[in-house]
């Protein structure tokens, strides 16, 4: 049984798992949606799947200002109850996500938010780059190369696909699912706005991801003293 990109998106909506995890699960189950859900549950995503249909109408709007006032983030994260919204675990998660946005510069929360026109433009750029390569390649290979680059593009612009700055061994989606399992409620990252001082103007390039990683390492070192 074959499956489509729409099936991958549907599985992601049901389970909260990453796009690549959903695609792999559908591949392993020959496109069977129910079996794919079970496969993801076996891999530790059962909690997210069980809670996916609940309504998350509580939560908080948090802000993060980067040291020196260079970057500001406003972020809304929802949960199911006011009790959880006031908990330290939830607040810590929201703060971590705000820090992630400041460091990694995502433009969207999830893949579905990427405008079709922007996605097509990126595909055309990647396709042109592949066609301009001196080494000739079959059309099917070129399309696979384009798809691979699009996946990298998603990791750059979509928050949920990004590697977690404080723990690069996991994605934000995985961190979200872990937090759902810990807290016991559905959590939804709804929206964010990121501001950067002088954005659009010529300025010295700085790697904020490395700077924040250094701050985290310093804080951990101080805690271990």
TrEMBL record:
Q: Which organism is it from?
A: Candidatus Stercoripulliclostridium merdipullorum
Q: Which InterPro entries match?
A: EF-Ts_dimer_sf, Transl_elong_EFTs/EF1B, Transl_elong_EFTs/EF1B_dimer, Transl_elong_Ts_CS, UBA-like_sf
Keyword tags:
Cytoplasm, Elongation factor, Protein biosynthesis
* Positions of region (Involved in Mg(2+) ion dislocation from EF-Tu): 81-84
Task of the protein: Associates with the EF-Tu.GDP complex and induces the exchange of GDP to GTP. It remains bound to the aminoacyl-tRNA.EF-Tu.GTP complex up to the GTP hydrolysis stage on the ribosome.
Q: Which Gene3D superfamilies match?
A: 1.10.286.20, DNA helicase RuvA subunit, C-terminal domain, Elongation factor Ts, dimerisation domain
Identify the residues that the record assigns to the Translation elongation factor EFTs/EF1B dimerisation domain, covering every copy: 29-199
Organism domain of life: Bacteria
Coiled-coil intervals, chain numbering: none
Protein family: Belongs to the EF-Ts family.
Subcellular compartments: Cytoplasm
Q: Which residues cross the membrane?
A: none
What protein is this chain from? Answer: Elongation factor Ts
């Amino acid at each position: 049984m074959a499956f489509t990109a729409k099936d991958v998106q549907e599985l992601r909506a049901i389970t909260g798992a990453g796009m690549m995890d959903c695609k792999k699960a559908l591949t392993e189950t020959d496109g069977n949606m129910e079996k794919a859900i079970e496969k993801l549950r076996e891999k530790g995503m059962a909690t997210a799947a069980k809670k996916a249909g609940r309504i998350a109408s509580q939560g908080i709007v948090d802000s993060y200002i980067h040291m020196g006032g260079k970057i500001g983030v406003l972020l809304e994260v929802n949960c199911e109850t006011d009790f959880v919204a006031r908990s330290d675990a939830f607040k810590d998660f929201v703060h971590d996500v705000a820090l992630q946005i400041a460091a990694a510069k995502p433009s969207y929360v999830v893949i579905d938010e990427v405008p079709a026109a922007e996605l097509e433009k990126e595909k055309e750029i990647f396709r042109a780059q592949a066609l301009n390569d001196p080494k000739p390649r079959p059309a099917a290979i070129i399309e696979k190369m384009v798809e691979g680059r699009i996946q990298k593009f998603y990791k750059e612009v979509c928050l949920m696909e990004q590697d977690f700055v404080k723990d690069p061994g996991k994605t934000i989606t995985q961190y979200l699912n872990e937090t759902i399992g810990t807290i016991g409620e559905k959590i939804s990252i709804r929206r964010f706005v990121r501001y950067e001082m002088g954005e659009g103007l010529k300025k010295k390039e700085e790697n904020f991801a490395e700077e924040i990683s250094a701050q985290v390492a310093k804080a951990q070192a101080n805690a271990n003293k």
